[in-house]
Amino acid sequence: MITSLQRINELAKKQREEGLTNAERVEQQVLREDYLREIRGQVLRTFSGLTVVDPNGNDVTPDKVRKVKAEEYVPNVFGEQKGNHIH
Questions:
Q1: Are 50 and 81 in contact (CB under 8 A)?
Q2: Contacts of 70 (CB under 8 A, 6+ apart)
Q3: Buried/exposed 21-50: b ≥16 CB within 10 Å, e otherwise
Q4: Most Cβ neighbours (<10 Å): which of 18, 22, 34, 51?
Q5: Residue 81: helix, strand or coil by DSSP?
Q6: How far apart are CA 62 and CA 70, in angstroms?
Q7: Counting Cβ atoms within 10 Å, is residue 66 exposed (0-12), middle (13-18) or buried (19+)?
Q8: Can you tell me whether residue 26 is helix, strand or coil?
Q9: End-to-end Cα distance, the chain
């Protein structure tokens, strides 16, 4: 689970009930951006590990996914290359 999600929800509740300070608004925006970056990274890691096979057993994986698999690197949540190979 994404650890910042609890704080994001706390700030959303406070925003609805009483409003946020400027510092809390900035914190909320940063947390939301980090959350979206993490979700996008999870989706990319999931899709880059897929192989698409047609009913005849032929690999019909889209070229874009093949390229990511060939590079054997997945960007981390900050868009930087990591040394972890896709398995």
A1: no
A2: none
A3: eeeeeebbeebeebbeebeebeeeeeebee
A4: 34
A5: strand
A6: 12
A7: middle
A8: helix
A9: 21
Structure tokens at 71: 């590079």
**What is the rounded distance in angstroms from the CA atom of residue 3 to the CA atom of residue 11?**
14
Give bridge partners of residue 53 from the DSSP assignment: 59
Going by C-beta distance under 8 Å and a sequence separation of 6 or more, which residues neighbour residue 27? 7, 11
Q: Are 69 and 86 in contact (CB under 8 A)?
A: yes
Which CA distances in Å does 28 have to 14, 19, 32? 11, 12, 6
Q: 17-75: per-residue pLDDT in tens? A: 999 999 999 999 999 999 999 999 999 888 888 889 999 999 999 888 888 777 755 45
Question: How far is it, in rounded angstroms, from Cα 37 to Cα 75?
Answer: 11
